[in-house]
Amino acid sequence: MQWINNSLVQSAIISPVIGALLGILFAGLNNPPSGGTTTVQQTTIVFKNVTNINNNGGRGSSSSDDGISILILSVMLIAGITWGYSRYASEILGYWANGLFTCSTFILAAGITSALRGQYSSYDWVWYIFMPTLAIAFSFHLLYLAKIGIIPNVREFARMHTFMDFYLNVLREEHRSWLLFQIAGVLFGVLAAIIATMRSLHYLSLMNQRSGSALAGAWRLIAKITFASASSTGLFFLLFLTGLSYFMLSGNAFEFWPHKP
Question: Which ranges constitute the DSSP H helices of the chain?
Fold first, then answer.
């Protein structure tokens, strides 16, 4: 049974199968909508802005000490993140790949199952549900860029040194810049994939909550959770984060950043 632990098997076979099964089961358990006019409930979420005002006028004497402490903690945090990504980049990207396969196959399976059951009221639903999967598909290219962006032998050096020694003494300036841009690109790519998945789930939930099955309540809950991703702001962040991730992972950001050749 060692083949189950193989990363290629997990990303190429197990994750898509799990996503497809969940999509088919989740969409297939819904009852088809009854005939007649269908009313889709629109959920409005109101956010309350709470402003806290604190009077800290007597802390001027310790402001310099606080600044030094924040600087030291920031350097340690950046060093730790850089060391962690250098050592575990393959595992991190493997989890990203598994998530992409699972999310994409879930959306496709649930969408196709809903279509076969006659739950689409218009062709607009096809666009709403499947268009974000194009962003997820592009994420596989971002994943490829992240894999080829791993510095050779950096994993071995990270294993042999502590995170501060690795960051300050082993890595050169251009290595630090490259790794930080790569880490940011992976983070933005993951966030973009999450927004794309939530956007598809939102429209899928709006369509399936019309059914009278027990899962209608679950679909309404999903619609509330994913409400923000379906707005124009959600679309903007999806495109912005995808483009920013590509800018980071492709090396363009590194080329624009001033560094020694």
Answer: 7-9, 15-28, 63-116, 124-148, 154-160, 163-165, 173-208, 216-225, 232-249, 252-256
Condensed to tens digits (0 to 9), the pLDDT of residues 45-65 reads: 332 333 333 444 444 546 677
Closest CA to 204 of 188, 225, 190: 225
Q: Which residue has the tokens 């001027």?
A: 60
Which sequence spans correspond to the domains of the chain? 89-150+171-256
- Model confidence over 79-116: pLDDT tens digits? 999 999 999 999 999 999 999 998 888 888 877 877 77
CA separation for the pair 253, 261 (Å, rounded): 15
Crossing angle of the two packed helices 173-208 and 216-225, in degrees rounded to 10: 140
Distance CA 45, CA 52 (A): 22
